[in-house]
Hints:
elongated; cell membrane; antibiotic resistance; 25% strand; Alpha-Beta Plaits; Rossmann fold; single chain
Amino acid sequence: MSPVVRTAAPAIEMAGVEKRFGTTEALRGLDLTVPAGTVCGLLGPNGAGKTTAVRVLATLVGPDRGTARVAGHDVAREAEAVRRAIGLAGQHAAVDEGITGRDNLHLFGRLHRLGARRARARADELLMRFGLAEAGGRLVRTYSGGMRRRLDLIASLVTSPPVLFLDEPTTGLDPRSRQEIWDTVEELASGGTTVLLTTQYLEEADRLADDIVVVDHGAAIATGPPARLKAAIGSRLSVTLADQDQLGAAAVVLSALSGGDAQVDVAERLVTVVTPPGVEVQLPSLVRELDARGVVAQDVAVRAPSLDDVFLALTASATPRRAA
Length: 324
């Protein structure tokens, strides 16, 4: 996670942004603020509007209503200035597999109007910085999936943009390749780049993001640092029993200690409860209460809330979606 740098002018702003595709409302008054020099994780179910939000900010589609600004520039009125200030890596690698990694970066540099010498120098600089120097002379078709995604990411950095959009950059990657992308994002953030990251991986957002915005049905339903969002969801208590007949007694104990509604899984002989926010139950207290009622537990656990818990709690009432 990057050091949080708060400035008066946010790097990314959206206010009341709406976007419709035919009869589908992809964005319904989305509000978003990302301070400069921070990483913002944009989370939400499939079809919640995450990719559409990125496309609006990157000037790929225009908003129907509301305003959006990137690096101080209005996406509708100053689209060219916005494009000069951003880098974009989408869900699918945009590099050419028929040429080398170095030639890909050189090509991107020339497309961005860098001179031939500067484009070559920038390609070598990026390959060295992000651990692809030895592979730079190889055809991209020989790269692993993780190497292709890393090359795609650094191709978006040819012009050293202050704002970077990453739309699900690690989808489909193995754990090692995902780790490589995470390391790259962390290095960029530590250097002051503002990153807007959409992801389906809650662990990814928890590790990388300074702030998180949860989007559902095209609108922001929760925002804040990961720790604060998790603090709003209680801990999860669980007890696995040896005797199915004691499930009722265990449920009474868990409900009494936590103030929450215990859930019973008869097949698994499992009782769980999520504590209300601000309520803490210590493991020794739980064990003592179970012993006092003669409940024999095979396993007792108190687990702090995760972003998965936050996500599930916030989107539990989700309905089928049709827009990305």
